[in-house]
Design brief:
The complex is a heterodimer of chains A (276) and B (249).
Chain A: H1 9-34, H2 38-57, H3 62-83, H4 88-112, H5 120-124, H6 132-151, H7 153-161, H8 163-168, H9 173-195, H10 200-212, H11 218-242, H12 247-265
Helix pairs in contact in A: 1-6, 1-9, 1-10, 1-11, 2-3, 2-4, 2-9, 2-10, 3-4, 3-9, 6-9, 10-11, 10-12, 11-12
Chain B: E1 8-15, E2 25-32, E3 37-41, H1 48-55, E4 61-68, E5 71-72, H2 77-83, E6 84-87, H3 101-107, H4 110-113, H5 121-133, H6 149-161, E7 167-171, H7 179-194, E8 198-202, E9 214-220, E10 223-230, H8 235-248
Parallel strand pairs in B: 3-8, 3-9, 6-7, 7-8
Antiparallel strand pairs in B: 1-2, 1-4, 4-5, 9-10
Classes of the chains: A mainly alpha (276), B alpha/beta (249).
């Protein structure tokens, strides 16, 4: 798609992958941070990671397995809290621990069996060994994420504002909330091979945190967060490949630096008054 | 001529919170006519908020029958909530909440607009109408998180009025308001009742009630112990007497 700009095929694929993955994650980061479900996003990222590891062990499609695991965990959180009488926070901690244990067990066991499986791609991402079909899939998830927000914008804004108020004005909160979780699980699973299970969380939180420093309105956050994420991710890919640095970790570091600069420059924290 | 059906009818209703061992409301029966002004009193934990949330279908009814505006609350909770305004008990919004007052008030119409549809001109006009009813048009573009507690409460009141409710459920609406704002809201409520809106109000402040006959409902331990009409001046005494009787029982 971007071959007219970047001649080198490997660099072009890497930039395309980072661009589309970052836009999809950044759109969802606004929902995740504003509904305050970042722990859910964190746990789902690790569930997808565990699903991919199990898939590889069983010689199944790791992307499909990570989608199933991510969605499975999203739908387990509520019933687990109710049945075990645990707070959602404790349930998430429990599921996160289980997911990590499963992922590490299968990765370590595969190495013991000498199946030649490199764990680094799943942990920290791999942007240079992607198939064209995987990039097309990222374009699709990017479009789906944008469409999801456009179609359900009123419902999403009301739930972000306050779930109880949203319910009291006649919005069907539960189906929309579960649709949000489904979208997060799907995006997380498709972005996992590029960004990696351990770093995905950065893409799911920091873009919105940066946007919040400058935006008074939710609608502007949905524009600023993906724009910032796209610029940072493409820069990370280009710099990383130019200087042979690991792309996803480097991009995560750039995100952190941009966030710190955004906090320092944020007009929303400045106290100003005009003497008339 | 047969009298019209009550706008709110509860018959032997039991309500329980998810995971609770016993019901929060027990055998509650209540009939309220269109245009009534109902004051709900009682000690903390008596079930006043639960009663409001049962009426608008936010809590599951485990036993009994409830109809509001002619709709079965158990089956059509969402439709009921589109016609019933509900001002929740005190709220404080984070200063960084990314919503303006106008956006918050518009949310009051989201249920009636419906899924996959965008707000139309009439929705924005209803928002302007609600803002001017409460005298807060000048706050429309301000972020809600930057307003005082009283102003935020007025915004949430406007959110409820924006959908022209047939029934208005108010849970401690005066908690963050100064005496001038209380008088203003009371005048507004009197006007709404005059227009045929049914108002149910949970409050501990009985001194500024509208000058008209009111129904007082007193709750104790999840059940109704007093349900009768009286003048606004008598409400406090009725609630106090019910409390004393409960203490001596």
């Amino acid at each position: 798609m971007l071959e007219f700009l970047i001649q080198n095929n490997i660099v072009c694929h890497a930039v395309e992958a980072m661009l589309f993955a970052s836009i999809a994650c950044a759109i969802l980061s606004v929902i995740i941070t504003q509904v305050q479900i970042s722990s859910i996003g964190f746990t789902m990222a690790h569930a997808a990671f565990a699903g991919a590891a199990v898939g590889m062990f069983l010689s199944l499609n790791p992307t499909v397995c990570s989608i199933v695991a991510g969605i499975g965990v999203a739908f387990l959180i509520g019933p687990l809290s109710d049945k075990a009488r645990l707070s959602p926070d404790t349930s998430l901690g429990l599921l996160f621990g289980i997911c990590m244990a499963v992922a590490i067990f299968f990765i370590a066991y595969m190495q013991t069996l000498g199946r030649g499986f490199s764990t680094m791609g799943l942990l920290f991402g791999d942007v240079i060994s992607l198939y064209r079909e995987e990039i097309y899939l990222l374009v699709v998830i990017c479009i789906v994420a944008v469409a999801f927000v456009l179609v359900l914008y009123k419902e999403i804004t009301a739930i972000i504002f306050n779930k109880r108020i949203a319910e009291s004005v006649g919005i069907r909160v539960k189906p929309v909330y579960y649709a949000m979780l489904f979208m997060i699980a799907l995006t997380v699973s498709l972005c996992l091979p590029i960004i990696g299970g351990l770093l995905l969380y950065v893409w799911l939180v920091i873009p919105a945190a940066i946007a919040l420093q400058f935006c008074n309105r939710l609608s502007s956050m949905f524009v600023v967060a993906p724009a910032v994420a796209a610029v940072v991710s493409v820069s990370g890919a280009l710099i990383g490949l130019e200087y042979s640095l690991p792309v996803a970790p480097l991009t995560a570091i750039i995100f952190s630096v941009v966030f710190i600069v955004a906090v320092i420059l944020s007009p929303r924290r400045r106290v100003t008054f005009r003497k008339t | 001529m047969t009298p019209p059906d009550p706008i709110i009818r509860l018959e032997s209703v039991y309500t329980a919170y998810e995971g609770a061992d016993r019901p929060t409301l027990t055998d509650v029966s209540l009939a309220i006519e269109k245009g009534e002004f109902v004051v709900i009193g009682g000690p903390n934990g008596a079930g006043k908020t639960t009663l409001l949330e049962t009426i608008n279908g936010m809590l599951p009814i485990t036993h009994g029958m409830a109809t509001v505006c002619g709709q079965d609350v158990r089956k059509n909770g969402v439709q009921v909530r589109c016609r019933v305004g509900y001002l929740l008990q005190s709220f404080a919004f984070d200063p960084l909440t990314p919503f303006t007052v106008e956006e918050v008030v518009l949310m009051g119409r989201f249920g009636t607009i419906g899924l996959f549809r965008k707000p139309k001109k009439e929705d924005y006009e209803a928002v302007q109408g609600a803002l001017s009813l409460l005298g807060i048009e000048d706050l429309a573009a301000r972020p809600i998180g930057k307003l005082s507690g009283g102003q935020q409460q007025k915004v949430l009141m406007a959110q409820n009025l924006a959908r022209n409710p047939e029934v208005l459920l108010l849970d401690e609406p005066f908690s963050n308001l100064d005496m001038f704002a209380r008088e203003e809201i009371n005048r507004l409520l009197a006007g709404l009742v005059g227009d045929g809106v049914t108002v149910l109000i949970v409050s501990h402040a009985f001194d500024d009630l509208p000058e008209r006959a009111v129904r007082v409902v007193v709750m104790q331990e999840g059940t109704i112990v007093v349900n009768r009409e009286c003048s606004p001046g008598e409400v406090e005494q009725v609630v106090r007497n019910a409390g004393r009787e409960a203490l001596h029982a």
